[in-house]
Design goal:
The complex is a heterodimer of chains A (441) and B (245). With 441 residues, chain A is of the alpha+beta class. Chain A is 25% helix and 25% strand. Chain A has 13 helices and 21 strands. Classes of the chains: A alpha+beta (441), B alpha/beta (245). Bound molecules: flavin-adenine dinucleotide and NADP nicotinamide-adenine-dinucleotide phosphate (NAP). The site of NADP nicotinamide-adenine-dinucleotide phosphate has 29 residues of chain B, from helix 1 and helix 5.
Chain lengths: 441, 245
């Protein structure tokens, strides 16, 4: 059968949709589906909210469009179908000395999904965003025809597609420039950061290619903003030996109290002290370093049936320290945060008008879905706008439409390109409708 | 000299996963089937993954004239030569009930077409005295059921054929393995209701490779289907005929 009636949910499991899903395994099938009734693409469903949902409508699951098409071992240029996952690319190419230039925090994200959200990785300050390494892509428009676009050919459409949330069409395949990968593991240096000021200073002073911070979002007072800074570089030690860690599944939804305030506080304190005061350096396999959470399959079930929200903003460098302090205070006082909190310095790299990154600091915080959370996230959203920052569509399920234009000043240019590419709105998703991204209609 | 695998029905997701796993081991591949464009895509993928050459050839179970070129390509190769059959078709039983003319096609795709191909290649393999044959049947062939008994009977025929072929080929050192998958998440089953314990095509491919190493004769995949099918086979016919499992 072509269509399966099914439901889908974002990674946070708060927003869900029902509708018809097709899952083509070959290009000719994908094209005929698009010629008959064009509809949005679904990748690995690793966006937290409704970016990949289309309630009551159709959607095309891209996971079986996942073959490698060409690879140049000299230059590291790879072409592949858009449904291939990032972890598969890492698995196949790292042993040959190449890796995707940008790797998000989950290996289950697909090539198409990484382009459509112009994702960033732990090397954003060095390597920029995913889209900056896309050389060209095959885009299938609402009439079912595919064409190759690049920064040279149909430059506007190309840019609108990067970070374009699937609104210009379905990305069938893409050609990317990979990055040399000199080792199969990383030397990861961890250091305790006792305060926000120390954290930010360490980020500013860091020269590491890869860096990311974990923050204890329950700490207040002089501990506010404390956490652990991880800096990493490819190891130069001769390939160390590892026991391959087995992935585990979460068999059921966790009960509500599992992430209550006091439990998180205790956990965080332990997590902080796990790193010795003098810091430590450990050698980790690439997969463990890039995708620390992937080993626990379905870890989103730990948040229970009600699911969870992630708030991720980026704040411009100037004023970031003050804004972060205010946000962290608000979050710690609420007692609502989970242990999953990430702070990272971002460079200026971005590739599309709707791309998330901006030079400054990005903060990501997971919150179990509790009654007081939406109001807290609204306040954090106001603070983000006031600080001149923006919220990441890939993580959002609560943001309000009225703030979009302020956060994304190139929205109009994007809308224009999208209206031209998809005049009938065939690729609209729940997120696009919720945030009225394509206009008020 | 690397092993060569001729794969019939290479556009199936199960066959694709099997080919990819073989490619990573450095095998040479001959991908055969009806959709040449799709097989070219799989060929490119397998080359990148490490296959020692991939060739795409047309094979149509309903058109025996497509067999000869594959067989002569086969004759030109050296080293260990192996064949894996993934061909099969499963229209809904209700469609066949409406149009009994569909029956012959199902039998040809899932049984007689592949069997005729194997029948022709068998003496060539015997002459070499090495290699393996993998035939993908189905748990549906273990007992006729209201929901898909035409497909089931084609698979049952194929199982019986493979068991006879195993009996014959074993004498010259060629191993024949019958594979009986349970529910697998492929295009064939997408959108069909009532599926449970569904395996991924990669799971099946891995099981087949493991089964080959252990020289299994009949392989249920995933393994627990042997238990389910043993139970289903032991239900007395007077009761079974009233069930709709
Ligand atoms: C544990 C975890 C860690 C994460 N870490 C990071 C991180 O470090 N950095 C970061 O930037 N993000 C991160 N993310 C977010 C994730 O990388 C993005 O949401 C990414 O877009 C997910 O890809 P996907 O294939 O799952 O896409 P989906 O979530 O399925 O879809 C996302 C969007 O892409 C569109 N899309 C998907 N495929 C195609 C296609 N072929 N053609 C056109 N449009 C398409 C969809 O329509 C939708 O709009 C993380 C997510 C998780 C769960
Ligand atoms: N999915 C399951 O749950 C399940 C369970 C048990 C057994 N099986 C068996 O597993 C095998 C693979 O099936 P699948 O699930 O991967 O589904 P599939 O994608 O439908 O695969 C069937 C394959 O058979 C090919 N084929 C059909 N008729 C043909 C013909 N006349 N000539 C040449 N090739 C022909 C198809 O080629 P085209 O692309 O040209 O159509 C396709 O490659 C089949 O034998 C199936 O019966 C499947």
């Amino acid at each position: 059968m072509t269509w399966k009636i099914d439901s889908a949910h974002g990674w946070g499991r708060v927003l869900a949709s029902e509708g018809r899903f097709a899952r083509p395994e070959r290009a000719s099938h994908l094209k005929s589906l698009m010629a008959e009734a064009p509809c949005p693409a679904v990748g690995g469903l690793r966006s937290y909210g409704d970016a990949a949902l289309n309630s009551g409508g159709d959607a095309i699951r891209m996971e079986r469009m996942n073959r490698l098409a060409s690879f140049d071992a000299e230059t590291g240029v790879l072409e592949a179908e858009a449904g291939i996952t990032i972890s598969e690319l890492l698995k196949v190419f790292a042993p040959r000395g190449w890796m995707p230039a940008v790797v998000p925090g989950t290996g289950f994200a697909t090539l198409g999904g990484c382009i459509a959200n112009d994702v960033h990785g732990k090397n954003h300050h060095e390597a920029g965003s995913f889209g900056q390494h896309v050389l060209s892509l095959r885009l299938i428009g609402p009439d079912g025809t595919a064409r190759t676009i690049s920064p040279k050919k149909s430059a506007r459409l190309f840019a609108a597609t990067i970070g374009g949330l699937g609104q210009t069409g379905i990305i069938e395949s893409a050609k990317i420039q990979m990055l040399p990968c000199p080792a199969l593991s990383m030397d990861v240096r961890e250091r305790r950061m006792d305060s926000l000021a120390e954290f930010l200073a360490a980020f500013e002073a860091s020269t590491a290619d890869f860096s990311v911070g974990w923050v204890d979002a329950t700490a207040l007072g002089t501990d506010l903003g404390r956490g652990v800074l991880e800096e990493a570089a490819f190891t130069e030690r001769a390939s160390p030996f590892y026991k391959q860690a087995k992935s585990k599944r979460i068999p059921m939804d966790a009960p509500g109290f599992a992430l209550s305030g006091p439990v998180v506080k205790l956990f965080n304190a332990g997590y902080f002290r796990r790193v010795p005061e003098a810091g430590r350096t450990r050698t980790r396999p690439l997969h463990d370093f890039f995708f620390p959470l992937d080993r626990l399959h379905d870890w989103n079930r730990l948040y229970g049936k009600r699911g969870f929200h992630q708030f991720q903003c980026v704040l411009p460098e100037a004023g970031a320290a003050m804004a972060l302090e205010r946000m962290l205070k608000e979050i710690a006082t609420s007692g609502l945060a989970s242990p999953l909190v990430v702070l990272k310095k971002m460079g200026p790299g971005r590739a599309g008008p709707l791309s998330f990154p901006m030079e400054g600091y990005t903060l990501a915080v997971d919150f179990p879905n509790r009654p007081r959370v939406p109001a807290l996230l609204n306040r954090l959203e106001e603070q983000t706008v006031a600080a001149g920052g923006r919220i990441y569509f890939a993580k959002d399920s609560l943001m309000r439409a009225e703030h979009v234009a302020q956060m994304y000043p190139e929205l109009d240019a994007w809308c224009e390109a999208v209206a031209k590419a998809d005049p009938e709105g065939a690729f609209e998703t729940d997120l696009v409708r919720r945030l009225k991204l394509r206009g008020q209609s | 000299m690397s092993d060569t695998w001729v794969i019939l029905g290479a556009t199936s997701a199960m066959a694709r996963a099997f080919a990819q796993a073989l490619a990573a081991e450095g095998a040479a591949l001959v991908l055969t089937g009806r959709d040449t464009a799709d097989m070219q895509a799989t060929a490119a993928d397998c080359e990148i993954r490490g296959a020692d050459g991939v060739k795409v050839m047309r094979f149509d179970a309903r058109a025996p004239e497509t067999f000869a070129p594959i067989l002569s390509d086969y004759e030109g190769r050296t080293g260990s030569l192996n064949v894996a059959v993934f061909v099969g078709s499963m229209p809904q039983q209700s469609q066949i009930d409406e149009d009994p003319g569909l029956l012959d096609g199902v039998i040809q795709d899932s049984f007689t077409g592949p069997a005729r191909f194997l029948q022709t290649i068998a003496p060539m393999m015997e002459a070499r005295g090495e290699g393996a044959i993998v035939g993908v049947g189905s748990v549906a062939g273990d007992r006729g059921r209201i929901g898909n008994y035409v497909y089931g009977s084609a698979k049952a025929g194929f199982h019986t054929y493979l068991s006879g072929l195993r009996n014959r080929m074993g004498r010259t050192g060629i191993h024949v393995m019958t594979v009986k998958p349970g529910f697998v998440d492929t295009a064939m089953t997408w959108g069909i209701e009532g599926m449970f314990l569904v395996a991924s095509p990669q799971d099946v491919a891995r099981d087949i490779l493991k089964g080959l190493k252990k020289q299994r004769n009949v392989l249920y995949t995933p393994w627990f289907w042997i238990i389910i099918m043993t139970i289903i086979r032991t239900i007395p016919e007077r009761i079974f005929k009233k069930l709709s499992v």
